[in-house]
Specification:
Helix 5 crosses helix 8 and helix 10 packs across helix 15. The radius of gyration is 22 Å and the shape is globular. By secondary structure, it is mostly helical. It is built from 19 helices and no strands.
Length: 404
């Protein structure tokens, strides 16, 4: 297939068997109509552009490091808690299911789901808060902005370009999966839009919207499981929640005395099922109302198409608030948040004060510009650490008894 210029639609595959396309809805993102890649490349005869994007994400260094990055609990607190990697896989699984039932492009939904957390620092949102404070005066730090930076600049794998050279649709979905972006724009997003307009003021396509709401479903359910495992919450408390309580009663009515592990799994899987079915019904209703002829009509709708119904919205928000109050802000989590914020702040400030403590490659990059360039380079380095590496690096640099 011939190379394409950015913004030009791809030609359809030469034979139907090459990409084995599904009968997508007219408002789905069709890979044959992709706006292409910033750096033109010949297309694959065996994989669609979005399948190729997915494979590049999965093979990236940033994706592998999610294995040792915090979701809620730091890695050394237990082997069974979710990490950013397992969370991303769960989001992708839900996104593919929803996309399939809406006749959308499953591969693009999976791309956005797998990439949506690539920009997270070690130690989750606590680490992001620490780096954002460190970057005050230098453009701040935002994990969504950092994900774009990773995918367009920081992954150094290909001979012809920096980043992964993903399609316009995947990058649009990553940047706008939570909705339109309003100015002032984060640093990387602002710089990238001068190269390639991602139409920041509109909603993304339906596949990205599916990935975003699948993220909500995933953490609402798996954080209940992890919170119970950690002993932060109890089944009795969950029975008071409007979405969870009736399901618990339903399961216990069918299997009285069921052990807690099976009880929670039966409950969370039914929660996922009910939220997914609610989203499918509400999205179909909105699509029937809008009757979009193509994906551009979805982007121009001025509101999300993929969302919970008015009946489900307060129920899932109640779960989210409960988790925030009882898990994310539990005093034991707050103690760990305080410690890990200190770890990243110490590392950032030491590197800023003395770049000779950086590895030669990062030191050379940090010393090629002024203070803001140095700060951004150090933020890239620190944000790319895993939990374990950050703790070990802090020990190497601050513990006088640690052998060099």
């Amino acid at each position: 297939m011939p190379e394409t210029q950015p913004g030009a639609p791809l030609l359809a595959p030469q034979t139907e068997s090459q990409w084995a396309p599904r009968p997508w809805a007219p408002y789905a993102c069709d890979p044959a109509r992709s706006r292409g890649r910033l750096n033109p490349e010949p297309e694959s005869p065996s994989r669609s552009p979005f399948q190729r994007d997915r494979d590049r994400i999965v093979h990236s260094g940033a994706f592998r490091k999610l294995k040792h990055k915090t979701q809620v609990f730091v890695y050394h607190e237990g082997d069974y808690y979710r990490t950013r990697l397992t969370h991303s896989i769960e989001v992708a699984q839900i996104a593919r299911t929803v996309a399939r039932h809406l006749s959308l492009n499953e591969d693009l939904a999976e791309c956005v789901a797998l990439a949506h957390d690539l920009g997270h620092t070690p130690f989750g949102h606590a680490g992001e808060d620490a780096l954002h404070a460190c970057m005050e005066g230098h453009g701040g730090f935002d994990h969504n902005d950092q994900a774009l930076r990773i995918l367009t600049q920081l992954e150094h794998r290909y001979a012809a370009f920096d980043g992964l050279n993903l399609t316009w649709e995947t990058l649009e979905g990553l940047v706008k999966h939570n909705g339109p972006i309003k100015p002032p724009y984060p640093t990387t997003i602002d710089a990238f839009r001068a190269k390639w307009d991602l139409e920041l003021g509109s909603y993304a396509g339906l596949e990205a919207q599916v990935a975003a709401i699948s993220d909500d479903i995933a953490y609402n359910t798996h954080d209940i499981d992890d919170g119970l495992r950690a002993g932060f919450i109890t089944v009795a408390e969950l029975r008071e929640l409007p979405l969870v309580g009736p399901i618990l009663d339903e399961v216990l009515g069918q299997w009285p005395g069921l052990e807690q592990g099976r009880l929670i799994f039966e409950t969370t899987r039914r929660m996922i099922d009910r939220m997914v079915n609610d989203i499918l019904a509400e999205t179909r209703r909105r699509l029937a109302e809008l009757n979009p002829a193509n994906v551009e009509a979805v982007r121009a709708a001025g509101r999300p198409m993929v969302t919970f119904s008015d009946a489900m919205q307060p129920q899932q928000q109640a779960v989210r608030k409960f988790l925030y109050d009882r898990v994310y802000r539990d005093f034991r989590v707050n103690r760990m948040r305080r410690k890990v914020r200190g770890v990243l702040t110490d590392l950032f400030e030491l590197y800023m004060d003395d770049t000779s403590c950086l590895s030669p490659e990062w030191r050379a990059q940090a010393e090629t510009g002024g203070a803001t360039h140095r700060a951004r380079t150090i933020a890239d380095y620190v944000a790319g650490m895993t939990d374990r590496f950050a703790i070990d690096e802090h020990r190497r640099l601050f513990d006088p008894y640690h052998k060099i």
